[in-house]
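Reading a protein record of the kind used here takes only a little practice. The integers have meaning only within a learned vocabulary of local backbone shapes. With that in mind, consider the following protein and its fold in token form:
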Amino acid sequence: MVTIRDGVVPDDVERCAEVWVAAIERRDGSVDHETMARRVRESFASPLVRFAIATAPRFGFATVEQGTVDAAEAYLHYLAVDPRGIGSGVGCELLADAIAHATAAGFTTLALDVKEDNVRAISLYERAGFKAAGTPVRHATAAYRMQSYILRLA
């Protein structure tokens, strides 16, 4: 059973940064630890629609923000699970929580961006009903490309 609670800023932020760095390192093989952790920490300065923490069976977190272009769109900025917990259902439950909170907040869509070759994450998003939107674009600070996905909520 997955246990999810409200995240607390600043108490949970450092653990989230650690998990994000570990997840990216597992996915990509290497990562600039301090730069990635700093980006996660800085993202908590923005107003959040939802900050969820999974505490069991593995630690994970998700953040949802209001979209920057369309006020009716929510944006799933982060979703990460401790790499030792992949396949435990934590990511699926965090995603369901994000969708439920975005819907309850009155958003009509939930958007996200994912590395275009992140097959595991894309499979999770597509199973939840997300559809690819547009063509992949180069990540703002990395050499790889990102694909946008959108879920219609209303």
